[in-house]
Amino acid sequence: MSRFSHILATATAVVALATPAGLCAQDIAITNATVATGDGSEPMEGATVVVRSGKVVAAGRGVTVPAGMQTVDGTGKWVTPGIFAAATTLGLWDVGAVSESNDLTAGNSPFSAALDIAPALNPSSQHVAVSRAGGVTRASIVSAPASSIFGGQGAIVDLGADPDMVVRPRAFQMVALGEYGARLAGGSRTSAHALLRNALREARDVGSGEMIPGGRAARGAPRQGDDLGPDNRMARNETDRGSDVLLTRFDAAALVPVLDGTQPLYVVVERAADIRAVLALRNEFPALDLVLAGVSEGWLVASEIAAAGVPVIADPLDDLPSSFEQLAATQSNVGRMVAAGVKVAIGRLGNGIEQPRNSPQYAGNLVALGKIPGASGLSWGQALATITSVPAEIAGYGGQFGVLATGAAGDIVIWDGDPLELSSAPTAVYIDGVLQPVSNHQTRLRERYRDLDESDLPKAYDW
Questions:
Q1: How far is 65 from 32, CA to CA, in rounded Å?
Q2: Residue of 188, 279, 178, 263 lying closest to 226 (CA atoms)
Q3: Which CATH code for domain 3-80+426-448?
Q4: Could you report the per-residue pLDDT of 400-410, keeping only the tens digit for each?
Q5: Is the pLDDT of residue 234 over 50?
Q6: Fold assignment, 83-401
Q7: What's the pTM?
């Protein structure tokens, strides 16, 4: 066998071992564990979770285990739904400083709103593997606006160790306002808002013959037979758009589902005044299905956000006045918004050194805040919900992901302790009832270098 053939055969074997093609959903019962269902309720000791055919059958105390079902003794363990990472970038980059491996932005693209991140996602990314090992089972993936205030169409994904990670492509549109959007729009918030309104009006022109009576549709539920892709919408409306348009037809068509409310619009915004301006967009475009992202000063206008029924994906790191639009940033932001009735998820982890697997740490911080005089935190159950059921609801999958409820996906994480404590870690991760591998480059390097036998060096290669 030639050296090349030997290398190829070895590589094929490694890939075969790393791909759990033969794995299938397991019927399993986890008993005698501390179970948190993720719906905001407090954890239950001595509880049982039953999963059959990839779905949760039951979770709680007094649950009967079906005869003959595989049973795992959860004594001393905690069981939760999988973490839902909201507005992250998993699968879009490998090495941030290497542009060839980084699909986070498209600064030189002629398109903006039409950008669809789904084809660029890499399920083999080590960031996906590391997050899965940390208990993350689902995520909403975004790309950062760069060539325009629009970042393009995000996707809902699962982190299973298989080639098909996309649960729903073109799930929402991303737009940046505030200081970030102002820079992209020419240096002023006035320009950013003018660009957004113009874009929505151009979308209205493109989609004028196909609007849905009644406005907003339910999140996560496309219309029957409707391809939300902009190419399909263009084909149905080829009227002359005139010579004064700013968007390409492809971009304008991509915003039609935003305009009619079938595709949520995620708006990156921080300052209280900017949040009010975003909420006011519905005066002109009443069908908009808005989601606020960032929202450092959200607590200042929490009652207005709650009254509008707009959910929030808050950045837990925005707790200091690092810019003029974050002068009122505080660690109590999430707690105060939740107390006012705002639906809040923790998200936007995944850029730079921060990772979605750290979200339990930030949820735990919210629990600790509740014990500090003058600070506003959350109960344990509320904090877990900010990284499980609430982001799933915002994504359109309430009752399906991020919760241990009858009929929900069998996304289960078994922890060696309280998941909101920094010292705890997952011991097993299931997605759709399938036990997932939790190895990655980090764990393999750790195992290689546990001993000090220098005769084994170098150990920097998989094969």
A1: 12
A2: 263
A3: 2.30.40.10
A4: 999 999 999 99
A5: no
A6: TIM Barrel (3.20.20)
A7: 0.86
